[in-house]
Amino acid sequence: MLPWLLQKFNTPFPELERFLQYISVRSALALAFAFCLSLLMGPHVIEWLRKLKFGQQIRKITKEGAPDLAAMHGQKSGTPTMGGILLAGSLLISVMLFAHWDNALVWVSIITIFGFGVIGFLDDYLKILKRNHNGLSAKMKLLGQIIMGSALAVFMMKANLRIHYMPTNTDGATHLVIPFIKTLYPGLGLLFIPFVILVVTSTSNAVNLTDGLDGLASGCVLICTTALAIVTYLVARPTYANYLLVPHVPGAGELTVVLSALIGASMGFLWFNAHPAQVFMGDTGSLTIGGLLGTIAILIRQEILLVIIGGIFVVEALSVIIQVTSYKTRGKRVFLMSPIHHHFERLGWPETRIVARFWIIAALLALFGLSTLKLR
User: Bridge-partner residues for 80, per DSSP?
Assistant: First the structure.
């Protein structure tokens, strides 16, 4: 909005207008603004949630042989949840201020933040209202995610994004980019629609599953988003994209501003979410973040790269799938508890140690993911 306002009105500060044309400058400002806004509003949002009695309910499992979360995290019961309002709000305001409004990719990001934010908010609100962990039904939540994914797929197929793939000189928005391979970009055709739905649904749910320990999800998001922001900056420039043999996506530089705002908002939220957490993000935050990361990966055609960069989220989701499948088919559990961070808790690891080690692994995966851009 600020660049638009400066262009719309005759400002007496032409140097400021020119200064804000640089993506690097606006990205830094978006990060700093989202961080400061989170720090400023955090105590007020936490107190507001506490007054509304929007506290986390720790479920007690009575089934024989099943691990009990209440025994592990009972002391956290009542901690304000739905803190994703703070994260998503800071993110959205920063994006609206510093990103260019005439960029279609920015509006896709804004719609994604709002759409997944609504799904997460309804889920959190119903959980609190009903005082149980059912919340929004799985079918309704999945339906909302499918609608968001379908809309994104149609946009990618209909919008003239002029995505260019080197060195094959192929144009289009529905080709798959495979790490380590520089001449193969298979076109998905109509399969692109279910593929996009799978990506946004998987990423949003994977981040949601990771949000189980103080600071775990927000810290991993911070690392993953930083790596993805670097990628958006590179693919927006033909010189860098051609050198690295990755798709050139015109206008993707504005996504760097969006992701920088997410970095700042995540840093600000982590300030209050670090152990011992003063607030939990809830589905309002986790679904919003996951949906946005998946959406941006699709916009820049780097879905498989996101699997590497966000490997922690992938492992968390796979641990749940493996656990459920094993128990239903064999009647046995593979892990002591899923998602996998709870498995290590059951092994006796302190919560802070688990979080720190997961952050380290997330950083290593992010660096490895970035290295694949050159290893083609």
Answer: 55
Contact 347, 336 (CB under 8 A): yes
Per-residue pLDDT, 70 = 52
Residues 6+ apart with CB under 8 A from 285: 83, 84, 85, 87, 88, 120, 211, 269
Contact (CB, 8 A) for 309 and 361: no
Listed in sequence order, the residues at least 6 apart from 26 whose beta carbon sits closer than 8 Å to its beta carbon are 3, 20, 98, 99, 257
> Which residues, in sequence order, are CB contacts of 263 under 8 Å at separation 6+?
31, 34, 222, 225, 226, 229
DSSP state for residue 187 in the 8-state scheme: B
Q: Which residues contact 12 (CB under 8 A, 6 or more apart)?
A: none
Distance CA 145, CA 137 (A): 12
Q: Collapsing DSSP states into helix, strand and coil, what is residue 55?
A: strand
Question: What's the DSSP call for residue 181?
Answer: -
Q: What's the whole-number average pLDDT of the chain?
A: 89
Question: Could you tell me the maximum CA-CA distance found in the chain, to the nearest angstrom?
Answer: 73
Q: Tell me how far CA of residue 242 lies from CA of 6, 14, 164, in angstroms.
A: 33, 34, 9
Residue 58 reports pLDDT greater than 80: no
- Mean pLDDT value of segment 74-96: 88
pLDDT computed for residue 55 by the predictor = 72
Q: What three-state secondary structure class fits 149?
A: helix
Using CA atoms, how far apart are residues 329 and 334, in angstroms rounded to an integer?
12
Helices and strands, number each (H, E), in the chain: 16, 2
Query: What's the length of the chain?
Result: 376
Whether pLDDT at 66 is above 60: no
Cα radius of gyration rounded to whole Å, the chain: 21
Distance between CA atoms of residues 91 and 258, nearest Å: 8
State pTM to two decimals: 0.92
Distance CA 163, CA 157 (A): 11
Distances (CA, A) of 336 to 276, 316, 327, 342: 24, 14, 12, 8
What would the DSSP string read from start to end of 106-119?
Answer: HHHHHHHHHHHHHH
List Cβ neighbours of 134 (8 Å cut-off, separation of 6 or more).
126, 127
What digits encode the pLDDT tens for the residues 288-341?
999 999 999 999 999 999 999 999 999 999 999 999 999 999 999 999 999 999
